[in-house]
Automatic annotation (TrEMBL):
UniProt keyword annotations, A-Z: Membrane, Transmembrane, Transmembrane helix
Organism: Kribbella karoonensis
Protein name: DUF4190 domain-containing protein
TM segment ranges: 44-62, 74-91, 103-122
Domain of life the protein comes from: Bacteria
Lineage: Bacteria, Bacillati, Actinomycetota, Actinomycetes, Propionibacteriales
């Protein structure tokens, strides 16, 4: 070491023997391109939308009455069916956010389950 600097004792790659160069090139081909290669394609938008629409579908029948007594309980259907479609598409294997889409699916099914007693109680 001279003046606090480290000396690199490794030889440059172009001076390596042929068998070592071939092995290094094979390792470089086998390695993934980077952290983006390990992540699944797609985004978590559909799972987020499914969960948000599902929560709105659960809350829609319980909104304060604004003279919508006859149709208020059916607001869950208008929101839950598209929410189910978003959740099913969000459960695709190539997408991120699959847990959120699964929770959105359950919440949307719960919104449809709430609809049955409300529809029978308030025809």
């Amino acid at each position: 070491m001279t003046n606090g600097q480290q000396i690199d004792h490794r030889a440059p790659q172009h001076l390596w023997p042929d068998y070592a160069q071939a092995r290094a090139q094979q390792r470089a081909r086998d390695l993934p391109a980077g952290p983006a290669a390990a992540q699944p394609a797609g985004s978590a938008v559909l799972g987020t939308l499914a969960l948000t629409v599902g929560l709105a579908a659960v809350l829609a029948p319980f909104l304060p009455p604004v003279d919508l007594t006859a149709v208020r309980q059916y607001g869950a259907v208008v929101l839950a069916i598209p929410g189910l479609a978003l959740a099913v598409v969000g459960l695709d294997r190539r997408r991120r956010g699959r847990p959120m889409a699964a929770i959105g699916l359950v919440v949307n099914l719960f919104a449809l389950a709430i609809l049955a007693p409300l529809a029978l109680a308030f025809p």
